[in-house]
Amino acid sequence: MQKLLQRALTVGLMCFAFGARAELPADYKVVLLTENFPPFNMAVDDKNFARDDGIDGISADIVREMFKRAGVNYSLTLRFPWDRLYRLTLDKPNYGLFSTTFTAERQPLFKWVGPIAKTGWVLLAAPGNNLSVKDLKSAAQYRIGAYKNDAVSQHLESQGIAPQNALRDQENVKKLLKGQIDLWATTDPVGRYLAKQEGVSGLQTVLRFNEAELYLAFNKDTPDEVIERLQKALDQMRSEGFVDDVTQNYL
Question: Where are the alpha helices (DSSP H) in 109-223?
């Protein structure tokens, strides 16, 4: 009997030790990066740099609540351009990036939490433009503007299409109106939102060619404990209707 008790005590101590290892250090913090990608994440003052409370949007509000519920410390910075943020997150442990479109090509590069929101990929033409496009293959004959290292641009390149990549997606609105590009490959509703900010309405949706989901992407060295806590928090928020309420508040 004594041996059984000793064995049970040993197993219990081992389980406790394992559980303790799963806990995060008191000073652990995630470095969260984001960009101006309205209405999902954006600077309150519309500039290309902001921190913490100076950032809002659908994804930003959801992410804040996720971290609060998960009990994980973080800092949040909005910067420019996306290409730099993407590479930083690839290279630096405990870095996270949102809103990041989940794709099969990106899946092995990061650890993921989501989905936070859903979007569509579209080709937009200038108001009054009567371009007819049945699929991406037929669109390849036209000059297509896109956003560098964005999932839409990466997808076009994987299909053998070479878009004219801009460092700011807003630049494509002006290029479209000036006739410098024929089509703008972007995310819906982001494209329409950016166009409205530039005072442009009436853009024509020529082709909707993909449905996508937005996630939090983390450097692969991020502890699994962080990923699991955040995913659990998000799942709970979605079941409570929190995610839908935040989304409707912006749209």
Answer: 136-139, 151-158, 171-178, 190-197
